[in-house]
Amino acid sequence: MDCVCGRVLMDMSQKDPCQKQACEIQKCLQANNYMESKCEAVIQELRRCCAQYPKGRSVVCSGFEKEDEERQKLKSASK
């Protein structure tokens, strides 16, 4: 996802609450040749931001939400 800092809008009236953290991840990845391991701290900052808001409130958090749903499905299937 290309980062357009400050321009991701929810319903055209609300700025995405975790956009700043998403942009920081993009900057970090670009600065570190897209090695995720070098950006774990900023990724965790985004996870912390996402945890503060209800599901669906932040577009940039949707990837984490899908990841969590898949993890829950796998847990349920293995029981």
TrEMBL record:
Record carries keyword Cell wall biogenesis/degradation: no
InterPro entries according to UniProt: CMC4, Cys_alpha_HP_mot_SF
Entry annotated with the keyword Transmembrane: no
Disulfide bridge partners, by residue number: C18-C49, C28-C39, C50-C61
Compartment(s) where it occurs, according to its Swiss-Prot or TrEMBL record: Mitochondrion
GO cellular component, one term: mitochondrial intermembrane space
Keywords assigned by UniProt, alphabetized: Disulfide bond, Mitochondrion
Chief location of this protein within or outside the cell: mitochondrion
Family to which this protein belongs: Belongs to the CMC4 family.
The protein's name: Cx9C motif-containing protein 4
